[in-house]
Amino acid sequence: MNPELKARLDSLIQNNKIMVFMKGSKLMPQCGFSNNVVQIISTLGVPFETFDVLSDSEIRQGIKEYSDWPTIPQVYVNGQFVGGSDILIQMYQNGELQQMVEVALAS
């Protein structure tokens, strides 16, 4: 990964408490998995940002290398990679996601 791309990804992740790399936007998700993530985070009633990987092929490929995770969407909370749709569903169901988000927003 080139230094410019890493810097762009670092900036997006570090400057947003909750950052979602997804297909589409939070207002118009372009796949079911991305929609699941948007719905879960929206249920928490907290602010979050999204980046449409369909609009930038360099970030679409780069984020997979950055996180060492092969699929989209990817969720970051407080600068840390959390996972994708399945992991978010599981964390939401067992209460871990709510705790993680509360801690992130309080810091």
Automatic annotation (TrEMBL):
One of its GO terms (molecular function) is 2 iron, 2 sulfur cluster binding. Keywords: 2Fe-2S, Iron, Iron-sulfur, Metal-binding, Redox-active center. InterPro entries: Glutaredoxin (IPR002109), GRX_PICOT-like (IPR033658), Monothiol_GRX (IPR014434), Monothiol_GRX-rel (IPR004480), Thioredoxin-like_sf (IPR036249). Pfam families: Glutaredoxin (PF00462). Residues 18-82 form the Glutaredoxin domain. [2Fe-2S] cluster binds at C31. Belongs to the glutaredoxin family. Monothiol subfamily. PANTHER family: GLUTAREDOXIN FAMILY MEMBER (PTHR10293), GLUTAREDOXIN-RELATED PROTEIN 5, MITOCHONDRIAL (PTHR10293:SF16). This is Glutaredoxin.
